[in-house]
Amino acid sequence: MKPKALVLQAHGSNRDFDVIDALTLAGADASGVPLNELRDQKSLLADFQLLVVPGGFSYADALGAGKLLALDLASYFIDEVSSFVEAGKPVIGICNGFQVLVKSGILPGKQSQAPAKNEATLTFNAAGHFECRWVHLKSASENCVWTKGLTEIITCPIAHGEGNFQVTEAISQEHIALTYAKMDGASANGAYPANPNGSIMDIAGICNAKGNVMGLMPHPENHIYNWQHPRHTRGETGRSGLKLFENGVNYAREM
Amino acid sequence: MPIYKFLIQTKNKDPRSGGLLRDAHSLGFQSLQSINMQDLYFIEGQLSQEELQQLALKLLTDPVTQSAFWIELPTPLPPSKADVAILEVSLRPGVTDPVAEQLVRAAHEINLDGVQRAATGSRFQIEGLNAREIEALAKQLLANNVIQHWRVGEITPSFPQDAASSGTVETISLRNLSNDELLAVSKERRAALDLAEMQAIQNYYRSEDRDPTDVEFETIAQTWSEHCVHKTFKAKVTLDDGKVIDSLIKTYLKSATDKINAPWVISAFVDNAGIIDFDDEFEISFKAETHNHPSAVEPFGGANTGVGGVIRDVLGVSAKPIANTDILCFGPQDLDPKSLPDGVLHPRRIQSGVVAGVQDYGNKIGIPTVNGAILYDEGYTANPLVFCGCVGIAPKGKHRKNPQIGDRVVVLGGRTGRDGLRGATFSSMTMDAQTGEVSGASVQIGDPITEKGLIDVIVRARDLELYNDITDCGAGGLSSAVGEMASAIGCDVDLTQVRLKYPGLAPWEIWLSEAQERMVLAVAPEKISALQKLCDTFDTELTDIGEFTGKNRLVIRHGEKTVVNMDNEFLHEGIPQRQLKAVISNQLSAISDQPLPVGDIKEHLLNLLSSPNIASKASVIRIYDHEVQGGTVIKPLTGLEADAPSDAAVIKPIGTKGQKGIALSNGINPEFGKRDAYKMTWSVMDEAIRNAVAVGADPDRIAVLDNFCWGDPLRPETMGTLVEACRGCHDAALFYDTPFISGKDSLNNEYLGTDGLRHAIPPTLLISAIGIVHDVNKAITMDLKEAGNLIYLIGEFAAEQKAIPDVPSSTPNIYRALHQAITNELVRSAHDLSEGGLAVTAAEMCIGGRLGMNINFETSIIFNEVNGCLLVEVTPTNALAFEEQFTNLPFNKIGAVTPNPVLKISNTEIAVDQLVHAFNNPKGL
Q: Fewer CB near the last or first residue (10 Å), C or N of chain A?
């Protein structure tokens, strides 16, 4: 049985079809569900094994990227999404989806060793503008179901203006799922362009304590075919973004 | 009702402020020490302190990086430090403010129902400037009077005024006017109609035995505008030698396409976009528009709505938009601000606004911006050019274009306001120093997320066959969209049904408004409910405003009152054909055929690489999302470090089977345009096709679009260059067997300065090419791949430098041979020779691969600009097979790729690092 993946289509989602394609290639039965349809039938969510909040500009980034869709989640689906997360089912938020998960508090979620009052955010890139370029990612977590066992560098694009991950206090290592790296895998050390947005500790993606919910700024769904690689005419390929989705889908299948 | 003012403070410095400081310094505000930008929100409503706190915490701030402070007006904010001046800016009433709309919606979502209205603004803390300088900075950089008001100190918020709904209709007495009086009416109403046209209107109303209403007059003015009806291109043109050309479109553009008669052209020149065959399942559409005049007065909004407009053109052929292109022409970025004509924004300001506008719309709606160009010329200082192109894909046979009697007239998308009134006629007029102020209403801000909703609805409605006809609301608004759809059968529309942004619009304003993000559909009554359901799912408004009647008259009511009742035939066929004169001069004689002065080759090459027109455009390209939709095979920047310029983009549309892709490229050359319009046209056609072939497009499956940006066609010399360019299009299209599938013109790109002089643009023709790549896995990039490979120059290289190079007769066969070589996988890289000649081409290939090249070539002609030539990298083992492809064609083995990163041209050696540095550090940008 193919695990069923729900890709939440909000007002302004735009990489919904990209991630549906990636999930399908990874072996899921993925479908886009418009937010208003889910509002009309909230129990629908329980029929799915994976939940995906895709990239885009929900509500045009009004009042801050991801903020108003996060508000929708809190206003309409908080119970359904909480029990989905509690059940340990894999959830991923990409780019705008990551912003939504962070601004709704689902990520980083409860932190076992963190200070009592600690908040995370994704704010304006240090360069002050939107940027689209390919980056290299290193898996930093064996706890996260999406990155577990990923030894290869993931090469994929970023396309965001507010991807600079910051926290008020600190973030514990267990939450760090992916970090920006140089092409050879060496740490980006905060230096542009390997770390494209100024995120602390080169953080590209984080997960919750349980490891089933991940958010990341880059777009692994845009490197699932060989010809997407920016140097495919130089013989470099690898579809390295696909592996992340295969991890999530396989985990859902085995649950 | 109380109004609260919220000031949002960022804990660290706001990253937007750094860019402002840089821009201000380059505009000459050297004494500016610091500038800090903060957000303002104005909220009207009855709210408790606790609710205000909630609003600040949950909606207005990011708790990690920001804090909020608020006061109830008219209490001022606490004063800032003594030497820090404050400037506040906010939108004028009626200008679209999507953030404010979302703020009210979201406040209600969290049960803060007391929030009534909202407005947004910005506050700048400025150090180091005196009051006069701050005002100058506001005008030149921080605010735009066209859409914003500003004040040194604190601003009062502006909400649209509540006004009683207006049903006022005027009658315009025309029947008894003299010729002078007719022209005065045209001028007074900014109708841009000439005497013959005014007389035709007068005669029609004499025969109807009444005078027109203002709604009727405005409808005719829009329908007959240059923008909507292309009267210059349809005019009868008399040349100075007595020859008469009956319509440039028919004689040159359409006729070329008809003669070529390519079986894979599905629709040319008839619909909102041209359509060609893609594969067994899909067709692809392509359209490019200009938005020059709006971008000159409000760069962000002008470019923003330009992108939005061309996307709707593609939606208008029922296609899903999959790629954008943007070609921009600006004045020099380092222009001395003192030399600017009155009322003209600095080219730097125009560029940053236009680029931000393109970025905002394309990125947010989720369409990759994959191809483009930026050109600089003094001729564009007062008249920047903004060409926006869009590609769409649709399943074959699903687009319907046939309204049925009894179908409902349905408007989808945004609401109607006073936005963009008379935009079609505005774009058909010469601008002057007052244009910005008078035409403020012609410019609007787009709302890409509303348009995204339109895409979501229309693509699904198409598949469910819910409509019989569709078109976009562009220039002329409903008058143009509904008028065109009803042109064969007539309609009956009630303007009181149209949803408005705010009350108070007169009937003609509703009918003519160019409010963005609207489409008009013809929908059978029994399908309305299914369409409504789709619209509800995607937060899109549907409004039923009337019926297609079959009575062949355009009938518009405002409630009970009939405000338009016109014969369709008069409206659509009644425009008298324009009679124009053209003088064709041999411009070339003015330019000597001297070769470029070349001193030190190294110095000259490095200078060229860092010159604004050739140097890297990475700082612009990187702020456009060119990856969304996952189909970008060849990206705008390529090579080992992704910093070399691609010849063309290749995309593979998501959801298509097989390995087919689409190449997108362009050709444009204002420098040649100044010299000879006919030969310029051949050159830009060649450039567009050459670029597409270089990445792997099949030269026998390329179609092109024309976009003419010219001066005032009433001047016979200007008309002469337009005639020559059109003749060039015809001849070059037949030469390459490459059909035109759509086009557009923007005339009157002239600026009448307060100095009394006309500032006209260089005659500028953009050719946009769309070609089929049969297998994207075989697509080619321009970066050198491997040391030891051979470098071939293919094509007939002209040793004699002319003012404009010829296109050698062997060129189409060169392209076919190159394509065959690419298909047989004999080519490792290919890059075309264009500006800066062979030397620049070789340098860019070295930059792409971070490898060296050793070339033996006559150095005196290495910078020659030629047509029909490319450099090609071939593996030695494939050399023989490659050369066989070019049997009986001109080619020349001129060098090899070297492992040491040095470009060696005869005895000159230049390190690739130096090339990279020059290319990535543009001068004067």
A: N
